[in-house]
Design brief:
This protein is an alpha+beta fold. The chain is 20% helix and 38% strand.
């Protein structure tokens, strides 16, 4: 039975890290990807007998919204091995990540067609919400022309649950930096 393991990204064992890098290269063209260490990336991997079936990273950041400071976490680089898709591995990992988030809220963007996948794993779509990544000097909003993104969330703390409406139909200034421009 596949199990979920978690490591700070920089401490992921080399063999597992190499498998994750290969999965990412197969899913997205471009150079190997490492997250900004300031976002405290946590890698969650679904592993079966040493083989990585699915992987994702959880990034962490404080943000200011609706006159309050929030501890936020978001999913990034969610990928399932092509030979193991359609078996629920990605859903299991995404649901486990949502449950493990130790922040006020989990929040991230995804391509609109992927919203039902995340909804089945317990995330909710925030209607009309835009995340603004990048930096204050060089913002990178999820409603950038040509994007078709939606914002997904999981309200984890009692305060976030009570203030949920403040995150709907809102522009949330995530400003996650130049490396991870948007999550």
């Amino acid at each position: 039975m596949p199990g979920i393991v978690a490591y700070p990204e920089a401490e992921t064992p080399a063999g597992l890290r190499a498998q994750v890098a290969e999965l990412r290269r197969a899913a997205w063209s471009g150079p190997d990807f490492a997250h900004d260490p300031a976002l405290r990336p946590l890698s969650l991997l679904l592993v079966d007998q040493g083989a990585v079936l699915a992987a994702l990273d959880v990034l962490h950041k404080e943000l200011d919204h609706a006159g309050e400071r929030w501890a936020a976490a978001g999913l990034s680089t969610v990928v399932t091995h092509p030979e193991h898709r359609g078996r629920g591995h990605g859903s299991r990992l995404v649901a486990a990540a949502r449950e493990r988030i130790a922040a006020d809220l989990g929040i991230f963007t995804c391509d609109r067609p992927l919203a039902p996948f995340y909804t089945r794993a317990g995330w909710v779509e925030l209607p009309g919400t835009v995340l603004v990544g990048g930096t204050e000097a060089s913002p990178f909003p999820s409603d950038h022309p040509g994007f078709d993104k939606v914002t997904m969330a999981s309200f984890r703390s009692g305060r976030a649950i009570r203030r949920r409406r403040a995150f709907e139909h809102a522009r949330i200034l995530l400003y996650c930096g130049e490396i991870d421009r948007l999550w």
